[in-house]
Amino acid sequence: MVAASNPPAATESDLEEFADLVYALRHRVSSSRPGNHASRSPGSYGRFAGLDRLSGNSDLRRLDLRASIADPFASVWVRRYLQAASGVVHVVVDLSGSMGFRGSVARHAVAATLAGGLTRAAIRSGDRASVRAATGDRSDAFVMEPTRRASAPSEVAMALAAIAPAGSGLSALRECCSQLSTTPGLVFLISDFAAAVDAIRPVLDALVMHDVRAVVVGDPEAEVPAARFGLAHLDDLEDRRGGVAFLRPSLLRRWRERRREHGRALSSLFAETGCPVIPVTGQIDLEQITETLIAGQATL
Q: Which segments in the chain show pLDDT lower than 50?
């Protein structure tokens, strides 16, 4: 495990691969702008929502002739629709110290590419996208307010690639999450979630008003040392302090068991808070991400 220098920003072609990513909000949005999500907004087309008696503000083009003829009291009925509407997609990125380490991949590079790509997917779908990033000690390491600007995805990828992950703990990330608008939206929370479960819970609590998807950036090489016998130099993923350990089979077994326990506890927390998981292990696999978004859940 080695500390990584700032990675190169994702290219335009890298981000364009995310353009057709499909996602949906689990709640109804309130927006007058047409889009792809179920809403509470009446419209002249969309999802059928029942019948209303003809009134002064009814749309006669939606006259339901069958219901009107069948009405024994000669009432005239018009169809009522709820039009699909656009929403807001928030991308929140953890850039604490553990996100700056490299195993088989650079977590920092993966996170920056995911943030830019998800921004591209949101804007291409007609939604507004906002992006926030927090280091271990700064809740405002990067802030982009909701926008549909076409250049935003590239700006996000370049800006996040230029921020060096630093600091420990998730208090700044929790503060970053609490600064989001209280209007319900979709939140992609990108992190390695390597911290203790008790430290992760307040972060999810700060997003209770939103539909949250936890994007878990994983890399086995950065969490469990290679199976070998002898002295090994190991670095702490958060504070980057190094140390020497004598690796032996019993220690590796305990290490791996603790990682499995952490994974089980994390899965339990996500299930308890109703937060679907999107695992990204190693390189970004858009087919797997799409399948997970459609299925609504995955296992760690």
A: 1-4
